[in-house]
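Ticket #4471: complex job returned nothing on first submit. Input attached below:
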Amino acid sequence: MSGAPLLEVEGLTKTFRMRRRLGRRQSDVVRAVDGISFEVHEGETLGLVGESGSGKSTTGYCVLQLLKPTSGSVRFNGRELTGISRAELRATRRELQIVFQDPYSSLDPRLTVEQIVVDPLEVHRVGDRASRRRRVQELLELVGIEPSHAQRYPHEFSGGQRQRIGIARALALDPKLLVCDEPVSALDVSIQAQILNLLNDLQERLGLAYLFIAHDLAVVRAVSDRIAVMRRGKIVEVGDADEVYARPQHPYTKALLAAVPVADPRRMREERERRRAIRAAADATADAAAP
Amino acid sequence: MALLEVTDLRTQFFTRHGRVHAVDGVSFTLDVGRVLGVVGESGCGKSVTALSLMGLLPPRQAAIVGGSVRYDGRELTALGRRTFEDLRGREIAMIFQDSMTSLNPTLSIGEQIVEPLRRHLGMTRRDARRRAVELLEQVEIPNSARRLDDYPHNYSGGMRQRVMIAIAIACRPKLLIADEPTTALDVTVQASVLDLLHDLQREYEMALVLITHDMGVVAEMADEVLVMYAGQVVEQAPAVELFDRPEHPYTEALLAALPQIEIAHARKQRLAAIPGRPPSLLEPPPVCRFAPRCAHAVDGDRCLAEMPELREIRPGHLVRTFHPSSERRSAPVEVGR
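Support reply: We reran it on our side without changes. The output follows.
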């Protein structure tokens, strides 16, 4: 880890206005992300974990400026991203890319694999046709897709292979940071392991940093150097991955960890009551903190 | 005592491209008050097995083409539609993964719980309503009397799944079939719904068939486990035995591929991915279906020449492979713990 962080998020807040309900003068405002701060350093993975509605995906979209933050700052490579012009943002996007959750809907079914992966290169006018073609071949090889399959369409590939294609597209412009939004949650366990290994390998080879967003604590653990736990728009705990998992401090982190079923029938039976107690304790603190 | 006895069940889907052998010779027995976990990845046939048992296969697209399903001494595959309807909901109940599509959005929660009570138990409207409140209390829905007249969209995902459970247990069924009942839920909600299922299963002495892709959920809930791959049972054993001494290369690989939350330096460890993907079930050839992905199959051995039978390798432990871990020359692979 070098001195200045690659990504520096400070006091990030994103509110959504709900549709006005009948008979109410004002519409409700939901604070999806509520003043959070964190950093991602070059070449590291920060795992952002939380349950549905915790604001983890909204955070990812705000970092990418796909959603406009309500307040707070997002600095990438020393440069403030909030409020910059579209042209400037476009230049930054080369270094800041996203891998989506659903490998079925995130690839255009009418385009060949080559057209999908070459798209960012064309948008950013990188190289000439021949060099772009070579780059696509190189990228497919890198993610474990047979380069000779470049003329095939997404439906000819399985979910795991499609996710590889999505990763190749994200890597096309040599980004420094990938925001991975639940990249393996649609995949079966045996395929999920292939993709997680691939992400780890790519990081090692290319020096990428990941903001890895997921609800599955075991998956997050397999790729993260540091972990941030989100609940109701706030980060309740952040720290070294081994430390957070071995010695969780916040009752909610404890409850999350205690809720994960482990593949050990003896322990699951022995610890049933202990797990229940930990969850009850977290519920009590949540109710006390609820608005 | 065997409550459910499934023998050589075969279910096929009829497609433009041919017959898909979705369930291909599945057998098991389930005793009164026991929990059977059926585990496997997408397309392995676990959900189609459940639909076959319940007589809920999509008509004309799929059918049971062989085998038998005996429930409490009665052959279910030969049952008429009306008789099956009397049985379903009353003695055999089912919970699905997606509570939003399983519940009727146009009926209040109360009406949906009252309906089976009146249909199957002949209760009066008043009695059924009173019982519905009790059931919602039992599945831990706060202010149950007041929430009876709410509609499904007023409930959260976890609460809707509790309502599904309330409907399923309304007539005190002897057999409950739950297909991925917690897959759509957050992990803390899943934990409490599993606790609820566990408690109710004990209290009502229901037999439970729990279908899931999650080895952790199986470990938590099941007495006995069936591992399915490509339409077949590849391994069956009591839960503790299965996790302690998995025999089938697929079971071993599945356990090894799981990311763990409790090991130090998880970041530095490679996950044991399973290469390739499951075979097509369109007229599959009579050879071992896991062979192309198996670490132990070698060129020229029997795996690609014949189909291994499901055999009892230890008392109560069945496996379908030519390369069970306890018969390999090298020491059995340590996995899963």
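Residues 189-206 of chain A form the longest helix (18 residues). Closing as resolved unless it happens again.
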